[in-house]
Design brief:
There is one protein chain. The protein is about 5% helix and about 50% strand. The strands form three sheets. Strands 2, 4, 5, 6, 9, 12 and 13 form a seven-stranded mixed beta sheet that branches. A four-stranded antiparallel beta sheet has the order 1-3-8-7, with no helix packed on it. It is mainly beta and about 130 residues long. The longest helix is centred in the C-terminal third of the chain and has 4 residues. It is built from one helix and 13 strands.
C-alpha cells in the first residue's frame, strides 16, 4: 500500500524551529519528486519546495528561501523539512506529496501542484 506520513508538526514560538518528516511506504522516495505544500487557514495551498532525490535538485519558493531546508535520507525512505526563523505567517497544515514523474514535477525553477500521492498533513502553528 502506497502511503506518505508526515510528522513533526506542533506549536512553536516566532523565531523558533521545527523539523517535519515525510516517510513513504510502498515505494522508494529516491525515484520520485517530493514536494512540500502548505495551506494556511482560509487560504489557498502553496507549494513551497521540492526535491528530486535522484540528483539532488531542489526548489524553494521565495516565501521560505533562506529559512527552510529540504533533505532526504533514502535509507530511511524519508524526506525532511527543516524550518527555522518561523513566523506567524508560516502557520498552516503542511503536506508532503510524491510523484514518479520526478523531472516534470520538481525542477530548479518550480514544482507542479497535482502530485499523485499525498500525505494527510501535519499542523504547524507559530504563535507566542
Amino acid at each position: 500500500q502506497v502511503q506518505l506520513v508526515e510528522s513533526g508538526g506542533g506549536l512553536v514560538q516566532p523565531g523558533g524551529s521545527l523539523r517535519l518528516s515525510c516517510t513513504a511506504s510502498g515505494f522508494r522516495l529516491g525515484y520520485y519528486a517530493i514536494g512540500w505544500f502548505r495551506q494556511p487557514p482560509g487560504k489557498e495551498r502553496e507549494g513551497i519546495l521540492c526535491i528530486r532525490s535522484s540528483d539532488g535538485t531542489t526548489y524553494y519558493a521565495d516565501s521560505v528561501k533562506g529559512r527552510f531546508t529540504i533533505s532526504s535520507d533514502n535509507a530511511k525512505n524519508t524526506v525532511y523539512l527543516q524550518m527555522s526563523g518561523l513566523k506567524p505567517d508560516d502557520t498552516a497544515v503542511y503536506h508532503c506529496a510524491a510523484d514518479k514523474s520526478a523531472y516534470a514535477y520538481c525542477s530548479g525553477s518550480g514544482l507542479k501542484y497535482d502530485y499523485h500521492y499525498w500525505g494527510q498533513g501535519t499542523q504547524v502553528t507559530v504563535s507566542s
